[in-house]
Amino acid sequence: MTDASSAPRWPGSVALVLASSTGGVGQHIRSVARGLTAAGVSVLVCGPAATQDQFDFIGVSARFVPVEIPASPTPADARAVAALRRALAATGVDVVHAHGLRAGLVAVLARPAAPLVVTWHNAVLAGGLRGRLSRLAERIVARSVRVALGASNDLVERAAALGAPDARLAPVAAPALPAPRRRRAAVRAEFGLAADRPLILSVGRLHPQKRYDILVDAAARWRTRASAPQVLIAGSGPAYLQLAARISTTRAPVTLLGHRTDVADLLAGADLAVVTSDWEARQLFAQEALRAGVPLVATAVGGLPDLVGDGAVLVPAGDVDAIDAAVRDLLDDDSRRADLARRGAARAATWPTEADTVAALAALYAELAPEPSAANR
Predict the structure, then answer these.
(1) What is the extent of the structural domain holding 26?
(2) pLDDT computed for residue 374 by the predictor
(3) 22, 89, 117, 124: which has the highest count of C-beta atoms within 10 A?
(4) Are 236 and 340 contained in the same domain?
(5) Running DSSP on this structure, what letter comes out for residue 134?
(6) In terms of domains, do 225 and 359 share one?
(7) First-residue to last-residue Cα distance in the chain
(8) Residues 6+ positions from 91 with CB-CB distance below 8 Å
(9) 3-state percent breakdown (helix, strand, coil) of the chain, nearest 5
(10) CB hemisphere CA count around 357 (13 angstroms)
(11) Are 162 and 108 in contact (CB under 8 A)?
């Protein structure tokens, strides 16, 4: 739980804007909204109705106004801009803080009177026309904000290179998981695992960026081990059908769990955690794994090397051989796994907390609006 006492007392009002989200961005905004409202800040969240259904911003004392901002540009963007403009005009806020490029572009086009902050949570990886349009949107947003925040150093550098007048690092802290409700044996029993069979866990949206195809291909090789590890992937997303077909074709020992709310339990039963993404900033599951003391194998991309330091095994992105070798080495060396778990937990203890994140944002809002309007309360 965020400790509101560490946040500066800024008696202002902020609008947090997000596009369609089923994972990290929505969790982050809920965490921020909870901490800010506890510290006396008036918080309005504007985003798709589905995000309120999933993350319950109202439940943490924020107000919510539906603004349908889809994950990809559509002709409906004009309606989103108009809806956000109406929401901001009706409520009145001292600062507008959009999260992600899609929400940032809609916020820019809405032309808020209040200072605009946009957080870059993801890099643009798409090619072709979509990639060109996204990079154009990046440039427009970067040059239109008062402050650009990046969840990792490479995103800060990107925003500055695109012309952001003020670009700063703003690490995103993973919300603390609850304590596991089940013991290791009970979690493993759910999947019918013998005591000596390793369990490998990955959690994230089923999206091409996560490169779960690499994990499936590596897992197919592990079928020949004396005690083949069982791989669990928790999450939902557009790549489900392709991954399910790949698992069937390769006969990989991989189970797609869909969306799960018991990640703490799954980590309690896991022997290894794996991240195979082409890019990440400060991936929430990587943070959760190290905090839980689960050894992590991850790709050396984006902000992950800065995040994990020597607390994880880092491998090149897109390299099934590297994932295969790293996992085999750890499964075959109990002492190395234990050492990695200790180093990972020690690294996690150095990270900013949710309270630190909220305090930094409250300080930024106070800097941009040092005398908040009473009308905006």
Answers:
(1) 4-173+353-372
(2) 52
(3) 117
(4) yes
(5) H
(6) no
(7) 25
(8) 13, 15, 44, 63, 65, 376
(9) 45, 15, 35
(10) 25
(11) no
Query: Is 277 found in the same domain as 257?
Result: yes
Task: Provide the domain count of the chain.
Answer: 2
**Which residues, given as ranges, of the chain have pLDDT below 50?**
1-5
Within-domain flag for 234: yes
What was the pLDDT predicted at 9? 81
Strand order, beta sheet including 230-234: 254-258, 230-234, 199-203, 272-275, 296-299, 313-315
Which tokens belong to 126?
A: 């798409």
Closest CA to 204 of 71, 65, 17, 27: 27
CATH at 192: 3.40.50.2000
What pLDDT was estimated at residue 1? 41
User: Looking at the structure, do residues 164 and 273 belong to the same domain, yes or no?
Assistant: no
Is-contact 63 37, C-beta < 8 A? no
Which residue reads 């992937």 in tokens?
233
Helix 101-110 crosses helix 128-142 at what angle (to 10 degrees)?
50
Does this model's pTM top 0.85? My answer is yes
**Contacts of 31 by beta carbon, 8 Å cutoff, 6+ apart:** 2, 173, 175, 354, 357, 358
Ranges of beta strands (E only) in 93-154 are 95-99, 116-120, 147-150
Tell me how many degrees the CA angle 311-317-318 measures, rounded to the nearest 5: 140
| Residue 198, in any domain of the structure | yes
Query: Comparing C-alpha atoms, which of 68, 71, 94, 70 is closest to residue 82?
Result: 68
Q: Indicate if 230 and 323 belong to the same structural domain.
A: yes
* pLDDT given at position 4: 47
d(CA 286, CA 302): 13
Residue 171 has which token pair?
């690490």
Q: d(Cα 266, Cα 187) in Å, to the nearest integer?
A: 7
The 10 Å Cβ neighbour count of residue 310 is 12
Residues 167 and 284 in one domain: no
